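Hi! If you just cloned this repository, the fastest way to understand the data is to look at a raw example. We've pasted two of them here, unedited. The first protein comes first, obviously.
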Amino acid sequence: MTTFTQLTPQISISPALSETDIARAAAMGFRTILSNRPDDEPGVAFSSEAARHTAGVFGMAFHHVPVAGYEITEPDAIDAVADVLSGATGPVLMYCKSGMRSAYLWALGTVGELGLAETLQIMDRAGIDASIVEDELIERAAMAPAMADAAAYAAAV
């Protein structure tokens, strides 16, 4: 049975899912599935289209934001995941090959809101080694106030 690891009450991560895993996720109350696994990644046995169909059968929303491992620190990838999460309904189950890529994308997308210390604590509690993206987390946390100021300015003009 695939393990779902909770990061926050609204976000959990998982290794690659099967049809049975999606059924179990629905029974556990997840409302949205977010796949970060590219369909052309080696070892994909359950495509994003099959996952989308299965999620739909169980009344769940499905989003596919494929991100290769070497792309996890790319701003476009981080922003695309953050956009899906900000508009998601109910608890979200994110997955990729191992779950780590999804965890890193979540952390990089939310560190500006949660702060560095809380983000690192969440990752640590979940048993995730954040050192792989720690420099990027520090950088994004430091940029958060400037980004908030720019957004406020843009909204005012």
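Ok, and the second one:
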Amino acid sequence: MYESAHFVSSKTLSGFGGWPMPDHFADYPPQRQILSYLTSFADAYGLSERIEFGTAVRDVAKNADGTWTVTRADGRPSRHAQVVVCTGSQWHPNIPEIPGDFSGEIRHTVGYRSSDELRGKRVLVVGGGNSGCDIACDAARAADHAEISMRRGYWFIPKHLFGRPVDTLAGVGPRMPKWLEQRLFGTLLRIVNGDPTRLGLQKPDHKLFETHPTVNSMLLHHLQHGDITARPGVLRAEGRTVHFTDGSSNDFDLILLATGYVHKVPVAQAYFGDEQHPDLYLSSFSREHEGLFGVGFIETNSGAYQLFDAQTQLIAGFVQDTHRGLPNAARFARMIRSDRPDLTGGLRFVDSPRHTGYVDSSAYTKYVTKVAAAMGWPTEGRPPAMPAVRSKETVA
């Protein structure tokens, strides 16, 4: 995790049910506060003593009787009726080929940690996602020269509007249909941000919300102040020179690829498939392998922690009813195999690997709430049984 990383969802909408983020946290918490929050959550719910820290899992294998064997890196096995894989799939970098022969350094941002790595260098960041824009801002401040290359135009959403975290505005006023929300908020962004082509950016080739949101207030600031230059896609490289699709070129020492990740779950790849996004019911339940679940595989347009909370509540409800032999469990098992709801919320997401299996968070939450209510399961965690002392971490 790089030092300048902050959440792109606000603290208001990022906490687990029953354990909201503390009031003294920043609107968009930095990584140190997120670590503090997760530690306090684990302590409050008695999880810390149940976690095997410093232990890697080598393999998850299905047994003939339907149980699962988890083998640790040191060879120790354990058998379980159910396994929840929470490793996520954003660990294995997608590294596109840059035609030509670049003589400088090329590396993926998965290994980037600090702006100190950029000092004294001419840096090109490739990619317009949230991490790419964050790191481009680091380069704007620390590098000798900084540029960012994007193949397409994006909608840049500021972190604050009208003095409030932007993701909290959706709950203000009456609920609107998605097409109207796109139109009104898109117009507002055009007023706030102006014409992106003035800054060397491309106009978006898609409607608002049809790609993963880029929530960043600082990239446009640095472009406006000449701290960084925007370029279109990379065409080829020759020596230290990078040529772009608009015919322009420049020399660089370092190319940082903020180009996303490929789906891999090495500990259980055979059960999650080779596709970019695994076919999991509600992004959590294996359709083919009973007793196998995943948390952290959902791709959506909002903060993830509240959705993780809802997923874990569903998993817990299903496991509990399965152990009790209740009819709900058999009913839900049939839904896992056959129910394929449309969770796009009416949005037409762009055709890209990142958006394979992508869901609209509002549509997802609405459907999960409906399913959970029918089963009698909660969708939000409860406060811990015993009060716990929250972390004393303070804002520097």
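That's it. A detail worth noticing about the second one: The chain is about 25% helix and 20% strand.
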